[in-house]
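Practice record 12: protein with manganese (II) ion.
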Amino acid sequence: MRRLNRRLVWWLLSVAWVAALVLLFLGTRRRLDTGGQSPSSAPKGSDIDWDDLWDQFEERKYLSARKWKGGEDPYRLYAFNQRESERIPSDRAIRDTRHHRCTTLHYRTDLPPTSIIITFHNEARSTLLRTIRSVLNRTPVHLVHEIILVDDFSDDPDDCRLLIKLPKVKCLRNRRREGLIRSRIRGAEMAEAEVLTFLDSHCEVNKDWLLPLLQRIKEDPSHVVSPVIDIINLDTFAYVAASSDLRGGFDWSLHFKWEQLSPKQKAKRTDPTEPIKTPIIAGGLFVIDKAWFNHLGKYDAAMDIWGGENFEISFRVWMCGGSLEIIPCSRVGHVFRKKHPYVFPEGNANTYIKNTKRTAEVWMDEYKQYYYAARPAAQGRPYGDEKMGYIEEKWDLIINRFCNWLKQEWNFSGLFQVVTRCNESLYQTGMIRQRQRCLETQKSEGQDFPVVILNPCITSKGPASAAQEWTYTYNQQVRYHQLCLSIQTLFPGSQAVLLPCKEGDGKQRWNKVGSHIEHMATRYCLDTEMVGDTNENMREVVINPCESTAMSQRWEMVMS
Ligand SMILES: [Mn+2]
């Protein structure tokens, strides 16, 4: 009996062995079949396949490593030390630069996988490979749905094509030079995952970089998040920790710069792992929910090559009720260079002017004069034929989807001013009714401004109904043209009056809470009282302590 068992075991083992050989053979064939197509992808496989794929990937050959000659300039092609980059292994270890408290955080187990989009034009093979390899080495496998390389018409078409042998990597190649912006749009359109991660092509991601970013998006998909960007030294390729007390800022010429948090803001930050809200993102590296990216209208596709797109997308995110954050527990290194190594077909300065001018024209309204003052060369410059259609489309987008910038509890100079017009276009118009009667304005002799009364509603459109037409604005004013609903005194029973609107006057702010209209400064409710004791139709409009059962405090805003 025991002998029979042993035989059975041997037999089973032999079958398993043959089966494994057949599978291995098929697996190899499948891998070979996938090469050379565009767009195409590496085979899907388990983690175990990954090592296998790395073994097959002939790194030295891909890098076409060669001996550097004495007089050769290693900075010539890429404006960083190419020789040093080639000397450093693609999977080198780097220091974990996070605050030690980050290592104690726990992340959700249901984080969404992401499509990582890396666009490049004539990138050094060594830095591009290190970017990809650091992602594959330092990201949980199940969170990387795919890595989409968008080769923006590099001189050598093989740069991208050879890399699809790596796990999860796909390659798209543009047929002509499109620039970063249109390349990213192309990558995003092809992405299969629900979250998009944009990475630059000369980065190295650090330990657990992706988890806190995805976590933030899982919490609220309108967050657009960016890591702290560490510095990879362009001469030595040393990985250096950047300060995590920085946020993005800009001057009126629309030049991006890093800004120190103020001492007050720093003092408020008791938890170093908390996100830092930022007016502007640097633009190279960020994570965004795909549906939200599409909802915002993606990028301005008429922008060329590089630059300005980070302002444009940042303004859009804030104005449409999202937020931009730097997540200190996420660290990604980036090779910062002193100049662009590649060619701008229309010239570097011209392209930057065109792109930022589009941003100013589309988003900055009267504040664009500051832009022109800071960048006089932009005046009279062309900025693309699609301008008008683009602007109209974007304004529709904002108005339809109701940006709620002011609902954000905070603001910052500069950007706050930029959004003024956006907010002014946000209002609702209609009647404010109490059963069959409506708030009405009535001119009266000897008064500077019309008085506010309650009169039977007029539903047919015309001059009569105009006196019952109110506008409720984003900043909680109840307006009749240039006049705002206000009160005479802060005491109960005080009459509601119309006064010229004044921005920031608390007496002119009203909040709709259920069927009540609450006066913000006093917390009393809009109420009606009979005048004298006979005429039921004549009621005056006052404020009184709120009472949930009082019919005279029930209002309906019939707004469009
Ligand atoms: Mn870069």
